[in-house]
Amino acid sequence: MSVDILHAVTSSLSLVVLRGQLRYLKACGFHPAVLSAPGAFVEESRQQESVPVFLIPMEREVSALEDLRSLGRIWQLLRRVRPTLCNAGTPKAGFLVTLAAWLAGVPCRVYTLRGLRLETARGPKRYLLYATERITCACAHRVICVSPSLRDRAVAMKLVSASRALVLASGSSNGIDVSRFVPTPARVQRAAEIRREFELGSGPVIGYIGRFTRDKGVAELITAFDQIRRRLTGVSLLLIGSDEPGDALDVAVRARIDAGLGIRAIPFQADIAPYYLAMDLFVLPTYREGFPNTVLEAQAAERPVVTTMATGAIDSVVDGKTGTLVPVGDSEALAEAIVTLLTQPAKARSMGLAARERVEREFRQEMVWGELVKLYRKLLEERGLPSPVGVQPENSLCLEKQ
Fold this sequence. Notes:
The chain is an alpha/beta fold. It is built from 14 helices and 13 strands. A seven-stranded parallel sheet has the order 3-2-1-4-5-6-7, with helices on both faces. A six-stranded parallel sheet has the order 10-9-8-11-12-13, with helices on both faces. The longest helix has 18 residues, at 64-81. It is globular and about 65 Å long.
């Protein structure tokens, strides 16, 4: 088995951020493979990307004994496969794989920073997360930050030097395949079916897609929604995602969701595009992000977005043009922004169209992938290693700052 690049994530769910990227690397002459913990999305990735997939259990939360075991298994894998380059993302895989790659002497090591959990952590956990991020960045030759504000934050916190931190193109984990979200007649029809299936009614639908956690601002969204219901009639809230024990919602918030009363909560969906079209606007009241893919997807579907001024999220919207930014943790400002867009449909429509144009202009997948290949070839050249022959990406858009 020939593997020269190993991409690693903690959860199989995170494999969606590599969709299409591995096929592109193959077209460029590389021989990529994936490392992930076992999970429901492994087989889908294996089939869609047609690359080897290595499975090693990794706990998302801190677990000293299990983490040590995972580190040993990853080191053994790297010694056996001997990739030329490792690119690890998500906090746990980033730490374990990048450290193991350093210990195993992998020539080129990249850490993709997709957010900072430590931003909202407190007490000993914050210090631990800070230490692991410092170690991860120190073991990497380059740190890809998925948004400009995330890069600024990482440099300001002295997690990584400015000379080793960069943003590919305009940012995001993987860019967006806009064609997957365009409001085609078939998708619009499916969206109407979704509204009937989940009894969302004919009134405005506010949408959210993501993990049901405190860090995502779900509690503030529920509070804002109850305020909105007192001002507008027939409004619904569609929540799509799953709970996460490591950052669980308060019991009262979870009980309010379960009670319904205008709220419908459903699991993640395989074909998510028509669900965006079933929404009148998309909301992400997050406390921290790397770069929210759901915001890009909603905008590709021509939906205006309300999100916060949090790290990462602030880069995803041009305030007043493609959506609205509100302060973090402010449910009243969130409610006001949502009501404004729901009661001004012409403005919302204009924002949605402008949002899609921006995504097409700045966040197409090929732009991110092309810059990634250029980075890989640069790292190989710096170490005197051969670079495979294949597609030559056009237009250097790497926002590397010295």
